[in-house]
Design brief:
two-stranded antiparallel ribbon, 10 strands
């Protein structure tokens, strides 16, 4: 068997929908035709990246697969009640009590609603991730995106800076959770500033190929209704949490177009003003598989739901491997200009 093709992973956040990314990673790890150089994640994407790295340290590919399964299974077990209900047509929705809690969150702060800062996710991460060891011996380049609350700027924590607070900050919706403070600064969900942050993967690594694993749709079907307040707010949130990522990709498209207008630059040494090697991009979108789900299911912490998303992720990654893995190391398998320009 030939050596695995080296790949960066950019893992988007999306709450419970991150179980889809778990399925994608599970399929990539099982297949074995790609290896990882850098992982950049936001929110659930950051948790998937950190848990994968921990598992890889413990036992390579099989260890990473086991660690991801253990994380998502344990996360489902932290919920003492079923937070979802299923329609007769198979649709998934949040239970009425959870919807009521979400409504309350608009009127009270986390400090008022949860004064003791009870966060089962913190305990879960501490139990399953050895952050001190990961800081010293991370098997990949790791980047976790958060938003600096006082300035709105993107803050990327690299492997040497990783902590449970950095990962929790990456997924902290400030209206729901207590915002972590790191070195005296407050941080919120990375989705506001970079979901995911791609540029760290393009600097200083060995891999020229980056696989984008996206949970939010790049385009909305015209038939999707926004004639209810709930649907309208869901669409607004969807756009807000991908705006920074779209701008970053648009900048990359513009940079690529400029290079194409001066092709001789690529042959010059970097010290003489030449371009760095052209990065290549690949894409796995959850949108087609998850478009039937209501946006509220991002909060659906439920074992059966996670397993369903995991299977959808595995199937989607299997199709990508069959169609596009041979492009890794050679060419793009996605038209960036068509997707983002």
């Amino acid at each position: 068997m030939s050596a695995p093709r080296l790949l960066n992973l950019a893992l988007q956040g999306g709450g419970a929908h991150g179980a889809f990314t778990w399925g994608v990673l599970d399929a990539l790890l099982e297949d074995g035709r790609v290896a990882f150089d850098g992982l950049s994640g936001t929110s659930a994407g950051a948790m998937n990246a950190v848990v994968l790295a921990q598992g890889w340290m413990d036992g390579g590919r099989d260890g990473a697969r086991a660690a991801l399964r253990r994380f998502w299974t344990s996360l489902a077990a932290t919920m003492p009640m079923d937070v979802t209900h299923h329609d007769v047509d198979g649709g998934v929705h949040l239970a009425p009590m959870v919807k009521l809690w979400m409504a309350w969150a608009h009127y009270v702060t986390p400090a008022q609603f949860n004064p003791l800062d009870v966060n089962p996710l913190r305990e879960l991460l501490v139990a399953q991730v050895d952050f001190e060891r990961l800081r010293r011996h991370a098997p990949f380049r790791l980047f976790v995106a958060a938003t600096h609350a006082d300035s709105g700027r993107l803050r990327v924590f690299d492997a040497r800076e990783l902590s449970v607070d950095a990962v929790l900050a990456s997924g902290c919706l400030p209206s729901v959770f207590h915002a972590p403070r790191i070195d005296g600064q407050t941080y919120w969900d990375g989705g506001y500033a970079g979901n995911p942050a791609v540029f760290p993967l393009l600097r200083g690594g060995r891999a020229l190929d980056t696989l984008l694993v996206l949970l939010s749709p790049l385009e909305f079907a015209p038939a999707q209704p926004t004639d209810t307040a709930r649907a309208l707010h869901a669409r607004i949130a969807e756009i807000a949490f991908t705006a920074a990522f779209r701008r970053e990709m648009q900048a990359l498209v513009r940079e690529r177009a400029q290079r194409e207008r001066r092709p001789w630059h690529r042959w010059l040494p970097r010290s003489w003003g030449g371009d760095r090697p052209e990065p290549r991009f690949h894409l796995i979108e959850a949108g087609p598989a998850l478009e039937h789900l209501a946006g509220e299911t991002r909060l659906a912490v439920n074992g059966k739901f996670f397993e369903t998303l995991h299977q959808l992720g595995r199937e989607t990654a299997g199709r990508w491997l069959a169609q596009h893995v041979d492009a890794v190391g050679r060419r793009d398998s996605v038209d960036l200009a068509a997707k983002f320009a």
